[in-house]
Amino acid sequence: MTLYLGIDFGTSGARAVAIDDHAGIQAQAEFPLDRQTPELWQEGLWALLDQIPITVRQSIGAIAIDGTSSTVLLCDRSGTPVAEPILYNDARGVTVMETLQEIAPPNHPAIAATSSLAKLLWYARHPKLYPDALHRVATTGLFFLHQADWLGFQLHGQMGISDYHNALKLGYDPEYLFYPEWLRLALPQLFTKFIPYLPHVVKPGTPIAPVTAEMGDRFGLPADCVICAGTTDSIAAFLASGAREPGEAVTSLGSTLVLKLLSRDRVDDARYGIYSHRLGNLWLTGGASNTGGAVLRQFFSDRQLAEFSESIDPNTESPLKYYPLLKPGERFPLNNPELPPRLEPRPNSDVEFLHGLLESMARIEARGYELLQEFGATGLKRVYTAGGGAKNPTWTAIRQRRLNVPVMTPPHTEAAYGAALLARMQDRG
Length: 429
Ligand SMILES: Nc1ncnc2c1ncn2[C@@H]1O[C@H](COP(=O)(O)OP(=O)(O)O)[C@@H](O)[C@H]1O
Ligand SMILES: O=C(CO)[C@H](O)[C@H](O)COP(=O)(O)O
Fold this sequence. Notes:
Layout (H helix, E strand, L loop, with lengths): L2 E7 L3 E7 L5 E8 L5 H14 L2 H4 L2 E8 L4 E5 L20 H7 L12 H10 L5 H10 L1 E5 H10 L4 E3 L17 H10 L9 E3 L4 E4 L2 H7 L6 E3 L2 E2 H9 L6 E6 L3 E7 L11 E5 L2 E8 L3 H7 L2 H8 L40 H25 L7 E5 L6 H11 L3 E2 L6 H14 L1
Parallel strand pairs: 1-4, 4-10, 4-11, 7-8, 12-16, 16-17
Antiparallel strand pairs: 1-2, 2-3, 5-6, 9-10, 12-13, 13-15, 14-15
Helix pairs in contact: 9-14, 12-13
The chain binds adenosine-5'-diphosphate and ribulose-5-phosphate (5RP).
């Protein structure tokens, strides 16, 4: 029996799920990430593989890895990082926004302070932070990679390969499958001393190479176990849900609120933080809001969230109109880096306050889906929920009232399960 392994590197932890040909789970593993460094990612990858029983490992035919979108690093040909990685939520790229706007076409998804391209430009402007690199890369070359690309490299050993999900916010064109001319022309002007290699981009799930002999021997993986191109963590969560029809959507209620609506048509508009990933012949339209569970956690423990939610009547609309944010700045459905949080007035009752927060987040979610459809995405038919908020039935009922379509929790919500499905897909064409 051939098995498929999906590995997810998310915001707070890494997980692995092995599935069989019928998508049934055969083994699972977890590794907490209390910080995000390449050393810990590598340790986590080894620890996850070690936790999978050896009998399962010996049957693995393919592995795919997802990582946080727009977490990037510079490394040399051997994979050794030459500069600190820049994480998915790091907005230091705000200092290069003007340049981004000059080089990229209007409304391009790479025009955002947290995009991979913004981070590449930031590296270009700060060569003094990796002085060693100039010397080292003179002979080996310098490579710009995403977290998932770098983790895949640890297993297949082929430097400089990415997938068109991770590469979207770097500027790669997933429709015509190339780096557009505006990007190719801009690079030599941005990097004065050396130009890093941008990764060669393939379709997510494409077999890249068999596991290296060293890794195969160390973990007891078959010599022909193939390592596939990966994806981003929230697309892996979408794949896990099983949604596949245009009009089906997945809302991730994790630390942030991420919407993904499968559509026949592509929609992109940086003014509202709307962009589209390619999924086969369809488009995964959506955006990521800064509201979500992290704001809830600021006020309530998970136990209080569950307890207070039970006292909320989801059929009654809360009159409180908040914009729940941890700090100023929103990406979608309003793209306004200065938008202030609105969390007043706070009622004396915690239940009423929580009701207002859940209602307001449901309002933002509904506005997000409305906007995607206004811009031409396929009409919303059904919403699956993933993330910590999915286990709150009161919130689901509030969201269903606002969204006016069925809202359901799918049997599988874990990104690692979605990555395993991606690994299984390569075997099925
Ligand atoms: N019962 C609940 N109702 C609503 N939100 C919840 C509940 N339990 C946990 N959460 C929220 O879920 C979030 C964690 O979800 P998770 O998917 O693990 O997030 P991430 O992986 O993005 O960090 C927390 O921020 C927490 O506030
Ligand atoms: O905050 C995140 C960490 O990855 C989200 O998953 C991300 O913003 C969504 O990105 P993408 O649509 O490219 O998967």
